Amino acid sequence: MTTEQLYQIYLQHPQVCTDTRGIIPGSIFFALKGANFNANTFAQKALESGAAFAVIDEAVYKTSDRFILVNDALTALQDLARHHRKQLQIPVIGLTGSNGKTTTKELINAVLSRKFKTYATKGNLNNHIGVPLTLLSIFAETEIAIIEMGANHQQEIAFLSGLAQPTHGMITNIGRAHLEGFGGPEGVRKGKGELFDWLEQHNGTVFVNHDDLVLEEMAFHRNFAKTVYYGKDQANLVSGEILENVPLLKLNWWANGHPSTQKQAVQTNLTGSYNLSNLLAAVSIGVFWGLSAEEINAGISGYQPSNNRSQILQTKTNTLICDYYNANPSSMEVAIQNLGAIAADKKVLILGDMFELGEHASAEHALIIKKANEIEAGQRIFIGKEFYRHHAVFTGTFFETTDAAFIALKTAPVTGATVLIKGSRGMRLEILAAVL
Predict the structure, then answer these.
(1) What is the β-pairing status of strands 248-255 and 238-245?
(2) How far is CA 391 from the centre of its chain?
(3) Are residues 174 and 263 in the same domain?
(4) Residues 243, 318 within the same domain
């Protein structure tokens, strides 16, 4: 079956599923394969659960006309998404970066949705499967789409850009993330820069943090249709500064050379001074698309983080900064610095191992321990095998596992403190909130 033929079926059944546990009645089920599963074996169950059609790539499972046989189900999904994207005559904002891309995506959506019918990547559906699913969820009434693109190796952003075909784009930052897959720091820069390459080749508009010298240089050496700068000084479309960080941020922003240049003070529900650039990115996009200051402020102040990224949780005994969705050396450093800058009588750091660092793991974990010991804190707790390797050398309390830390914190509770909890998702640091 050709992509065009499959697209005609999609137009009649514009819902796509890849998991039989969440089948939408009347949808098209794509039988994808993974290291430990073959969804062709679940195709019949998908139809029995309400799917209209099942796209399979093994002929033995085709037992009726409701099974659509293709050479490769994943490729068929990606080709269908690419074809659908070509039919959408709307701005598409492509977003990538080492840190902050999900928060920035959510902020941009919160702002633009005050004026436009928007669609943004749900959760972290930002890979070779998630981006096609996102694209196939964009319908005719959508006016602007925001597509998050994640990567852990080179050429991945180039491929995802070819699917999403962004007209506008932004790289939040270039940090020390996924060093193993990218082949080191320079590989990260090259890999994330593939979004800029796409936008340069397709006459796109980019939004650049003028305070980030790496991003500024990357933009300077490319020719875009338009470059929009945001940052702290006056030489930007939008400028801003932090008014308060106690621990929630209060933002001051203003649009330079814009009819409304009056400073706007906005209370946010985010913590972390590192979120200033993410906030200004959303503001600059709002200004670029002609939103009023009132609409932008409503979007910023109305955004409630709920994804364990820069999220504040007030317990009976402590104020927790829940930032344990993921971690890498760059995000760890700024989170530690932010805790050091927060006005609080008692501070505690609880840091978990960072994954996907390859040969850089030992040195990067040692550096984070040093950074943690440079700020004033009542306790510094390090969790995980990589951190534990350094327990005999550095000051701090070390645990090999999160379960061991849980028992220790339950036995000797932390009270009356502002507590930063940060580590890679696989460390399961969220369980510690129950004893804090």
Answers:
(1) antiparallel
(2) 32
(3) yes
(4) no
The last residue of one of the domains, among 302, 331, 359, is 302
Tokens of 324: 């344990």
Cα–Cα distance measured from residue 15 to residue 22, given in angstroms and rounded to the nearest whole number: 12
- pTM value is 0.87
Task: Tell me phi and psi for residue 292, to 5 degrees.
Answer: -75, 165
Tens digits of residue pLDDT in 151-202: 877 889 999 999 999 999 999 988 765 566 666 667 777 888 999 999 999 9
158, 189, 283, 345, 430 from 196: Cα distances, Å: 9, 11, 21, 44, 35
| 207: nearest Cα among 225, 193, 228, 238 | 228
- Shared domain for 297 and 343, answered yes or no, is no
Residues 6+ apart with CB under 8 A from 196: 169, 171, 206, 218, 219, 222, 224
What CA–CA distances, in Å, run from 21 to 15, 38, 43, 48?
A: 15, 15, 12, 12
| DSSP letter (8 states) at residue 270 | E
In a shared domain, residues 363 and 405: yes
48: exposed, middle or buried (C-beta count within 10 Å: 0-12, 13-18, 19+)?
exposed
Assess contact for 348 and 420: CB atoms under 8 A: yes
Strand partners, 55: 30, 68
Q: What angle do CA 78, 81, 83 make, to 5 degrees?
A: 110
